Amino acid sequence: MVSIMLVDDHAVVRSGLRLLLAAEPDFQVVGEAGNGQEAALVAESLLPDIIVLELIMKGINGVEVTRNLCKKHPNTGIVVFSLSGSEHNVIEALRAGARGYVLKDSHHKEVVEAIRKVAAGGRYLCSGLMEQLFPNRKSDNTLRLDHGLTARERDVLRLSAQGSTCMEVASLFGISRRTVETHRANILHKLGQSRPASLYIYAFQNGMVNGTNSSMMNSEAVVHHGNSDGI
User: Fold this and answer.
1) Could you read off the pLDDT of 70-123 as tens digits, one per residue?
2) Are 49 and 117 in contact (CB under 8 A)?
3) Which of 83, 126, 135, 190 keeps 20 to 30 A from 172, CA to CA?
């Protein structure tokens, strides 16, 4: 049985989710919270397997709530269920430790699938986000390491996603910064992408980065194309 806690500042959303999840025989909603402070208290008391959480709430920012919950309860999986699909919010939530992200306009089956996958130790991004971030992806919601990346390109991708700068990667491998930048450009080309933020999502889906271990990453470097020294 997967125990689930709901965190959203709209009671009607929590009620709808509770009804949806009640239809799954192996799911049990054990508690609710209407804000970040309540979430911390309820999670401490119930220790749920999964927390389904809205990012945009009154009071404590949902990203900060996610970060705090992941630090205190590392065995609890966070699935963001949010109205916001902005690239910045998605990456910040994943960096904070969320292992799933579903938009509120997604099909209800995606909420169930996300919970199951995260409860089993996996990661999940809904189809709406994948269409937005990877318009040339395959039909499913996964990005496997089957794009012809070389071993060195995979190493550069992993280290960059974990927060290493181009200079740090270059120093580690004894190569020039320009060579690292070339590797990153080649990775983007093979993925059919132009935004460095896509590298982080790709690394996330392939288990190369743990959000709570990549907090050193600068959010501006993650989101904006102008900074070439970090994802």
Assistant:
1) 999 999 999 999 999 888 899 999 989 999 999 999 999 999 999 999 999 999
2) no
3) 190
pTM of the model: 0.81
Tokens of 51: 């927390």
What is the helix (H) or strand (E) element at residue 194, kind and residue range? none
CATH code assigned to 151-223 = 1.10.10.10
Fold of 2-133: Rossmann fold (3.40.50)
